[in-house]
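Handout, section B. The chain below has 132 residues.
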Amino acid sequence: MTRRVLVVDDDRSFRQSCRMRLEFEGYEVSEATSWVDFTKAFYGSHEAPDIVLLDINLGPTLSGDKMLSALKKGRENLAIRKKTKMILMSSLHEEEVAYRAQKCGADGYLLKDDMCERGTERFVTKLKSFLE
């Protein structure tokens, strides 16, 4: 069974890096660049993604953690979407990312540095752990 990942990030190069690495690992990857794109991809898709990777610093209008807080409230009515794991990601310090993930009700967090600077294996391993 192919797992579906939705990467929500306004940084094009990061989205492309995620896509290439995750497709190499056998995931089906879709992308969104904003709250509007996310809404279309998440609610407009016939099948919910298994996991959403949501950047904290998504842009000037709404941060990823605030967006996730709002989504968690509305997700209760969408049974098919309840199983989707919502994961925050950021380049901020790990303590800050962990705090914000816990505060907004995320299912976990990933550090962008694990994809960019430290090699992708740690990023992918942690992503896989969310799907177990």
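Note. The chain has a mean pLDDT of 85. Compare this with the example in section A.
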